[in-house]
Amino acid sequence: MATDSMTDVFEEHRSVLMGVAYRMLGRVVDAEDVVQDAWLRWSTADRGEVREPRAYLVRVTTRLAIDRLRHLQSRRESYVGPWLPEPYVTDFGAKVPDTAEQAVLAESVSMAVLVVLESLSPLERAVFVLREAFGFPFAEIAQTLDRSEAAVRQLAGRARKHVDEGVPRFEVDPAERRDLTERFLAAATGGDLGGLMSLLAPDVRLVGDSGGKARAPLRVVESADKVGRFIQGAARKGVTEGAVVEFRFIEVNGAESLLVIIDGKPDSVLQLEIADGRVQRVYIVRNPDKLITLVP
Is the whole model's pTM more than 0.85, yes or no? Predict the structure, then answer.
């Protein structure tokens, strides 16, 4: 196979490979490294033995991601404060015209689901990603993981049960999410604690990820009163006088979110989980290592 043809085939499947790797690892840089390693394997593969390039590439990417995940899990045990996935810029509305497929892809890459996937074994996570996000047949997943189809079905059942128990299903209209996020921002930056509190569910939870490298709570903040006061205080004290602050809406992890830019550099990403017209969860990523791909 000519080099140009090899490159064309790989690029044709790159988005799927990146999607698999990111859902497995929760970090863009690690996912990109895995995809690059997959390219190196592909570039030296015996073409006579590769009947289905897509299956081969997904198999290689998945196995590389499992190996890296096992290494990362030991590092995450010493992570400072709560862990959230690195914000991953998505644009499912423009790239995926099928609304049902949009919903599946958005759920599988959501902050809430990726947090739950952290508690799965690498094999359970791989099965969930390949089956739930990309619809691979059990037989193909079994071949990818060198497991029997019966074993893969058991892994899939355990993973789906775990996700269903850990992630409440909220269906939110994008316009409602945008409106509530704008009101949340206005109340927070305007010092309107009452207005902010009116947007929060009584049992709202705030999860902040700083990795110990930026100002963020080291524990999950719970209750409308505590979350509201924390947000108000952070909005008031978190910006140096004279700094240039910009708020930009972007779609990350399948949902519209707020990117905060200070003096031209990404400072944080805020995403709201909404149900029944109230904010149920607030996710804030402030670890600078997780914001480097969000170039304004």
Answer: yes
